[in-house]
Amino acid sequence: MSDHKIVEVAAGILIDREGRFLLGSRPAGKPYAGYWEFPGGKLEAGETAHQALARELVEELGVTITAATPWIVQTFTYPHATVRLHFFRVTGWLGDPHPHEGQQFAWQRVGALNVSPILPANGPILRGLALPDTLAISAAHRLGRENWLHRLDHALAHDLSMLVLREPQLDLEHYGALAAETVSRARRHGCRVLLHGALEQVGPLVAATGANGLHLSAREAAALRHRPHGFDWLGVSTHNATELTVAQRIGADYALLGHVAPTASHPDQPPLGWEGFAATVDHGWPLPVYALGGLDAHDVAQAKASGGHGVAMLSAVWA
Ligand SMILES: Nc1nc2c([nH]c(=O)n2[C@@H]2O[C@H](COP(=O)(O)OP(=O)(O)OP(=O)(O)O)[C@@H](O)[C@H]2O)c(=O)[nH]1
Ligand SMILES: [Mg+2]
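A: This is the predicted complex of the input protein with 8-OXO-guanosine-5'-triphosphate.
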C-alpha cells in the first residue's frame, strides 16, 4: 500500500436526546478488530463525505439519517494507511441501530466511557465532544466589575458551562484578582473558565487560580511552535484560515472564528457572514470551531449547519 495515498473516511457520531453518543466495535477480520469506533467507512469514488456517511450508516446500522452536520476532520497515520476522517454529528435518524456486521454497540457519555480500547485517532474527538454548544466571553470591561459578576452569577445559575475571561483593560494584578473571583464562582456550578492573555503573563495565573485553561489571541498563538504544557484546555481566537492553521499547529482544543455578524466591538471590519464562515470551516479542521461575533444561542443551529461546533457569545449572555 502506498504511503502517499490518503483514504477518505466518513464517520457519524449519533447523539441521542440524552446527549449520549454511539460507539460500535470493529468486527473481526478488519484492522483493529475489537476496537471501538464511530460507525462509518471509506468514501467510494464520486461520493461526498455526507453521501458516504448516509450509505455507511444504512449498511452498518440500518439507520437513515435525517439530520447530520459536518464537524471536524482528523487526519491520522496508521501502519496500514493514512486516513482522513470526516466526522459528522448526527442528531436525527430513522430506525434503531442494529449490528449489521456483527459489531457490538454501546451508548456512551462524555467523560464516562465504559468501553475500550477506542481507535487511536479518536482521542481528540472525545475531547471535542466534551465542549458545550455555547461558550461565553466576559464583559466586565463593558459592564463594570461588580455588575458583570452579578450577571455572571445569573448566567451560572442558568447553565453557563464555559467562559473565556477576556478583560484586556486590566493590568495583571487586577486581572488575576478577577480571575480568582470568577473561578471560585464558576467552579460551584461546574463551569469551565479559560483565562485570556499572553502565555508568559497569564499562563501562570491558570494554575494559581485553578482555572481550566488558557485562551490565546491569534497573534500570541502564532508566536508558538508547539502546544504549551500545563493547560487542560487551550483555545485560540481566529479570523481566517491562516490563523486556524496556527491553532491546528499548536494543538488547540478549539478555535473561535469571527466575526460572523456585524458587531459593536469591531464596527470597522467587515463581517464574514455565514457564507464566509462556512467557506473557511469547509477546509476541514481537526478542532471544533465556534462562530463568534454578534451571535446568540439562537444561532447554534446555523453555526452547526455551517460546519461550526457552536456559538461563542459576548453581549447576548450578559443582557
Ligand atoms: N468508521 C470509522 N473508522 C475509523 C474511525 N477512526 C479511525 O481511525 N478510523 C479508520 O478509518 C478507516 C476506515 O474505516 P472502515 O474500516 O470502517 O471502512 P469501511 O467501513 O469502508 O470498511 P471496509 O473497507 O471493510 O468496507 C480505518 O482505517 C479505521 O481504522 C472511526 O471512528 N470510525
Ligand atoms: Mg466501517
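The first helix runs from residue 49 to 61. The chain has two domains: 7-125, 134-318.
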